[in-house]
Amino acid sequence: MRTSGIIGGLIAALVIGGAAFAFAIVWRPALATIDPAARQSFDPEMVKRGRELAALGNCNDCHTLRGAKDFAGGLPVPTPFGTIFSTNITPDPETGIGRWSEEAFRRAMRTGVDREGHHLYPTFPYDHFTNVTDDDDRALYAFLMTREPVVAPARANELPFPLNQRVVVAGWKLLFLRPETYQPDSTKSVEWNRGAYLVEGLAHCGACHTPRNALGAERASASFAGGESDYWSAYAINAQSPAPVPWDAEALYFYLRNGWHPDHGTARGPMAQVVSNLSSVPASDVHAIATYMAGVFGPPAPERNREAVVARAKPDEGKTSQAHPEGAAIYAAACASCHESGRQPPYGGVNLALSTAVNAPDPRNLANIVLAGVRPVEGERSPIMPGFAASMNDTQVAALLNYLRSRFTSQPPWHDLEKTIEEARRTQTAFLQTSAGARSAPADPAQRDKP
Amino acid sequence: MMTLKVNGQDHQIDADPDTPLLYVLRDDLKLNAAKFGCGLGQCGACTVIVDGKAVFSCVTPLVLLEGKQVTTLEGLGSVAAPAPIQRAFMEEQAAQCGYCIAGMMMRAQALLQRNSKPTDDEVRAELAPHLCRCGTHMRILRAVHRAARLMDTAELTPERKGSAQ
Ligand code: FES
Ligand code: FES
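Above: inputs. Below: predicted complex with FE2/S2 (inorganic) cluster.
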């Protein structure tokens, strides 16, 4: 009797304790609404800083739908679990964040909870934003609160049960959200630390470039080992990088700042918007990112220098074209006129021996770009490539890709090419319709006068 | 030797498989509506319709055209019996020098075949790959909408209703 009473009491205590624990994990209070603050109440200097930080954070990429107003949300973000729609972060009081206090904004950045206390899905990368300082959050808040308010109600996410229950996110956070993980390393330079702060925090590079586990969290043990974004593969940007010529800090800076590099080619897909944003931030921040990432890539292997790589692309002696006659003919008429024109990137095509897309383990990016091309930036002189979706069927694209792979790389042939191509045809149509795309390029005005 | 179907006719073409369609159209078949602008797929002057889709003929090698139907502007209508798209461009006086116009008409035709009432935004997005150095863009836009209306009205007899495969 006594023992069972004790056991019963224990069970009751466990249940109550468990419930209290669960409640503590799940429940977050709503924070009070505010009357939308007047624009003039924000310090212009802080708004300007916030603009640069928002560009570093690439906020517009997810929160702006093609053809719609800036930051009004509504962009479908495909995930393995379903489609999540970005939300309106303009200061509209009813459908945006106009009634959010700075505290509510900071809580969302740090712990992924909205003003009303709902858990936000980690498509909003608060696992990185948790590292953003109070000062930077304040500037971002000032910037967003001074944007044009847009009435744009949130679209319902397309998630199956039970993932459509936001309490599930609380469990996810318990497992994977490590608040404020970034710690400065006093043994490293100020610039390196600045880069680390940006890359691990606001710039959230790992959100695309680090592979995710079955529950959609970044695998800490495989940092920067390559992930995906919007049906593009985000290459490994550590020692496993498939770039034929290794990246160093100088090349990274040039690429991130200008959107292209003579040894690597042009940024496209979701990265086009990243570099477009990075062209508008202080150069010192881009240098810092490049310095930190160069450390992540590790020291470049000397034998993979440009000359050695380009040597692979010497004129085809006929062996490859005999093995792939159809691909060779397509290449000659459709690709070589730009890629072997002798004009330098970004206005001439990159030598394909230097192309990461052709060398990568996953053919997806090459398929995407052959089908969709590179859309020029409106009103700017910028890289351009026609898409071939209308003139080539999947078998023909496969013939071309096989030819490129065997002519320009020493990598093994790809498997399941046609499946990838068929998928790329479907997904790129969707991506091009929703992504707002790059808005400026290249950053360095001196480059604009170069042919 | 390959068989190329252009405007409903079979042609025996003796050319390398990597020969751009544009060269064959202009040099061998003397169909000169499609123009050479850049040869790089960047201006749109060479646009023709292949199996219902607008393509740049300058970067489309013959090897891609086995068994496909090519339609050029000559295949849509003639001076005596212009197709709706041609009539609309004339009525809007959309051509200045005219160099870009055949390409514009072909892409607009392909658009109208799959979407008979495009919005202005849709027309602009569709024609974005085409350059016009004379700056007749506003007339071109009006012409495309006029063509949409023409294709929609009964005043056209079926055989004059230009359509391409
Ligand atoms: S000539 Fe073909 S696109 Fe310019
Ligand atoms: S009318 Fe002259 S290029 Fe368009």
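The domain at 84-164 of chain B is CATH 1.10.150.120 (DNA polymerase; domain 1).
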